[in-house]
Request: fold
Amino acid sequence: MSVTTTPPSNTALWRDGDEPGDRNFLRIGDLTLESGERLPDVVLAYETWGELDPARDNAVLVEHALTGDSHVVGQAGPGHPTDGWWPGLIGSGAPLDSDEYFVVAINVLGGCQGSTGPGTLAADGRPWGGRFPRLTIRDQVAAEAALADALGIGRWHTVIGGSMGGMRTLEWAAGHPDRVGTAIALATSGYATAEQIGWSQAQILAIRNDPWFADGDYYDHPQGPEVGLGIARRIAHVTYRSEIELHERFGRREQDEPAGECGRPRYAVESYLDHHGGKLARRFDANSYAVLSEAMNSHDLGRGRGGVEAALAPFAGRLVLAPVDSDRLYPPRLSEELARLYPRAQLTTISSRVGHDGFLTEVDQVAGLLRRVLAGDTAACE
Reply:
């Protein structure tokens, strides 16, 4: 079980002693990070569906995005503050059929839902807090590889993920090319772009400049940096949706309520963003948000490998790239660029007016894609 502190209600961190829900916990031991720093006694929380077959060749890894966790499907309840984030995609008869596949989802290293992260107790008995080391996407995949080893999975049948999960999916293909049969990367890129890093920096600064952030050591304080985390989420959420969707849903419509400060009207889109900012602050940890955002900024398949093309060259498996046509944060050109650098890649497009979040909201299209790819239909993605 994860070894985490029991802070007051100033963070949505999963804590040791909380109801585990559907989680399993695995202690993978010490992990040497890309930086050379050693992160001791690492624990990963994960969930599984189905059974690993005797040949151990039916395992599928599902990689979550920034504020996701191991609870891919299933209802909210004890141990799980929200319903699964990809409903209907795992289960008997589902696209990731648990009667056929052994499906694994891991709460990412640095997260806040059971895996080792900033809220975990360090060796001195205090939460890591601001002392938690900087992570990279490669560090997170290295931890996942250790968990796969412990589960007896030498090679994944398929790895699938979107956004930050897509980054880890691609890193599996580049960093462990012999351990992946098929990689399906949705709404992602081969490296973090300047714009993505810029948006991320604004979110990190919103958190770290909250007066209650206390250099990351807020776990024993009466209040945490919920305001900063909420602002970060507001910034992020605008980038996750398309301009046309926001326009059509909200336009310049004002809320039917008294004017706020200085008589200024309150616009409906502001209320929408306030809702999402507050919602995240009730289910996520600010330190984890900043640590994971910086890990995303580190993403570059080609770093130290001679470029992206050289990094992917050893991968002999199947690479499927699925951008969202209205995504302005991870625009389709980034997947198209990857497809040019890896000519064996198959490129398909998720059609959505939503924007980046289309990889989550267009469940029917994603389900159809998964069924075609897992059935071995090589023409279905062209």
Remarks:
- The beta strands are 24-32, 38-49, 59-63, 90-91, 96-97, 102-106, 156-162, 180-186, 318-322, 346-347.
